[in-house]
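Whiteboard transcription, Tuesday session. T.W. wrote the structure tokens on the left side:
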């Protein structure tokens, strides 16, 4: 586990990424789009509630704003193969600008109902997995491998900053405007991002083998034990974290809790995630598998105070620790994909990873609803914490035994070199 020299780590790594002309031109547009995502978290729910009093339809609207991306990842591969990272990200941003922008237009025209709203939200998310894959593929295309971790962590920082700032901005907008107006602003941020991608110099396209199919990303994962192990780890990680989205609000909003307490927990998570993104480049000297597994372990340990009924300050610190682990896990797991997947298949493999997350989190959240109903919020959080710690232990054992290594032609993943 030989360390990379300090000159390539720490804050300097972020500076080197920002000094890349392509990344520097795209960063403002990406930051705006992440802010738009944060605004949409609030605006979509409020617009759906404005259009219907049916809670099921409101929930369907929220689900439609993300879940179809998993379907798009699996069925659109045949049409999107061979596209560069910038082309994929441009397509997603432009499509979201058009579809999300249609919602406020329909609202102004007086034709927007909950059915049309759900349909447009579902359409807007179809390319979501490919847009995410395109962003991280672009990192691999424009940066040397030693800067991939820093580039990935910068995207994580921008994403978490948008998560923190978006809801307050949405709340401010709603004082003077409507939920449909807030969604119009969200759409505009994607229009700016699409224009940014259109104006940059797009890297040369890598042609895929003629035999490529729409499921070739899955084929690569199946044929590469390291990728299969990594995607399985992410799937179980996100599934076990899914119940937190139900259990935490239930726990802190019980009779002795307040809405402010829930906001404090989410703010602590967001601040921890931003700090995690800032420290990620300092971890470049460690094994990427070690950082990834440690991220799962840290998330489990951070949830323990909540599961054990600890005092609120200790629980908030623990949840901040969960956030602190989030950015290193994301950045390092993506760096492993960038290292392991063939260059001409990277976008398709990353789209599969994004699809798995889009499916695993809602599945875990749905299970969390049942678990909270029958076992209580605190018991559910304790089960999640214990499950994540156990998952980290199993993953560490498999990595140590090199059961994720390939048939003989793959890199040694227990080394940082």
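and on the right, the sequence the group agreed on:
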């Amino acid at each position: 586990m030989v360390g990379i020299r300090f000159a390539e780590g720490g804050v300097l790594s972020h500076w080197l990424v920002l000094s890349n002309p392509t990344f520097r031109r795209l960063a403002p547009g990406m930051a705006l789009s992440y802010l738009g995502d944060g605004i949409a978290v609030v605006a979509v729910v409020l617009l759906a509630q404005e259009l219907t009093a049916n809670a099921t339809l409101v929930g369907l609207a929220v689900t439609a704003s993300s879940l179809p991306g998993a379907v798009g990842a699996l069925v659109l591969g045949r049409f999107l193969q061979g596209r560069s990272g910038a082309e994929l990200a441009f397509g997603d941003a432009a499509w979201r600008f058009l579809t999300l922008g249609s919602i406020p237009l329909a609202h102004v025209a007086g034709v927007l109902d909950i059915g049309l709203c759900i349909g447009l939200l579902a359409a807007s998310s179809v390319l979501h997995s490919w847009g995410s894959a395109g962003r991280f593929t672009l990192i691999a295309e424009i940066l040397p491998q030693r800067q991939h971790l820093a580039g990935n962590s910068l995207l994580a920082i921008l994403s978490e900053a948008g998560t923190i700032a978006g809801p307050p901005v949405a709340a401010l907008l709603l004082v003077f405007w409507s939920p449909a107006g807030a969604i119009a602003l969200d759409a505009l941020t994607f229009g700016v991002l699409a224009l940014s991608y259109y104006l940059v110099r797009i890297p040369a396209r890598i042609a895929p083998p003629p035999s490529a199919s729409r499921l070739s990303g899955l084929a690569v994962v199946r044929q590469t034990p390291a990728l299969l192990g990594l995607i399985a780890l992410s799937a179980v990680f996100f599934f076990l974290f899914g119940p937190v989205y139900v259990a935490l609000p239930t726990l802190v909003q019980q009779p002795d809790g307040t809405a402010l307490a829930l906001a404090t927990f989410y703010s602590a998570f967001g601040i921890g995630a931003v700090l995690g993104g800032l420290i990620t480049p300092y971890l470049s000297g460690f094994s990427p598998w070690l950082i990834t597994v440690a991220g799962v372990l840290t998330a489990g340990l951070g949830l323990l105070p909540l599961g054990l009924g600890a005092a609120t300050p200790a629980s908030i610190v623990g949840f901040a620790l969960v956030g602190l682990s989030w950015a290193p896990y994301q950045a390092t797991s993506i760096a492993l994909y960038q290292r392991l997947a063939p260059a001409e298949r990277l976008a398709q493999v990353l789209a599969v990873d994004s699809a798995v997350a889009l499916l695993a989190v809602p599945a875990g959240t749905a299970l969390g609803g049942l678990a909270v109903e029958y076992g209580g919020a605190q018991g559910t959080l304790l089960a999640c914490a214990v499950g994540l710690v156990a998952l980290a232990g199993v993953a560490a054992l498999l990595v140590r035994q090199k059961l994720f290594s390939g048939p003989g032609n793959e890199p040694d993943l227990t080394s940082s070199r």
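Someone added at the bottom: The chain has two domains: 1-202, 211-417.
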